[in-house]
């Protein structure tokens, strides 16, 4: 029951100010956010590569209100790509982008987001890596999928994300699996109404497995975004039945969560990618991490008590 409350708080400016000022916040934010600058995140990419892991990098920030902020978000990703190129880390790191950062919600936002994300995708391709378009709330998805389809005309490795809790997702998965694209499946971390999204956790898990079967039986490249041991085991069995080789799908988990499991899967020969967020505008991302798992919230509360 706490999840929806926390997600609602993620849109509250008053809660943003309170959480940002709380004594224990930095300790917990540092667990989920790799740093604020490119200089801070590059050593993490290096370390992951040395351990046999790959990463996908997310420059956090979603509350874009002007075109100038959208241009700045574009430039932040271009700076990241330049650094990865100089350090020859492009093949170990891809990018994840939220189109809201590129101006999707502004007037003329669909065209603005496409114009801003295209040079990022082009620059990523030039250093041998890819970009995945993150899914946001359900009102943005038709635009996201249209931009995904447009980008894939020139950059077929461009990926996208689908969310198991949405009723529409099984149909989206069938279309994307047949299309041969790169697809990350996650449970979903936005507050959605019952008219568009499954509310019961057990039913979401069942939907996740149904969608997994579609993706693994298709022609695309599935990226399994989950920390759930049961879903990971189910994925391994379904991949075996589908005749998938270890390099024909991958697991993805969040930076700071189940780090030992990252290493275990990589040691077993699986492709394991760590979703690594960084930047100064961390609040929305941080609150969704708290909402996803009660243990994260307890960790936050304990840290506040300890600091006091």
From TrEMBL:
Pathway: Amino-acid degradation; L-proline degradation into L-glutamate; L-glutamate from L-proline: step 1/2
Occurrences of domain Proline dehydrogenase (ranges): 46-298
Enzyme class: oxidoreductase
Names of required cofactors: FAD
InterPro entries in the cross-refs: FAD-linked_oxidoreductase-like, PRODH_bac_arc, Proline_DH_dom, Proline_oxidase
Keywords per UniProt: FAD, Flavoprotein, Nucleotide-binding, Oxidoreductase, Proline metabolism
SUPFAM superfamilies in alphabetical order: FAD-linked oxidoreductase
Name recorded for this polypeptide: proline dehydrogenase
Organism: Streptomyces pyxinae
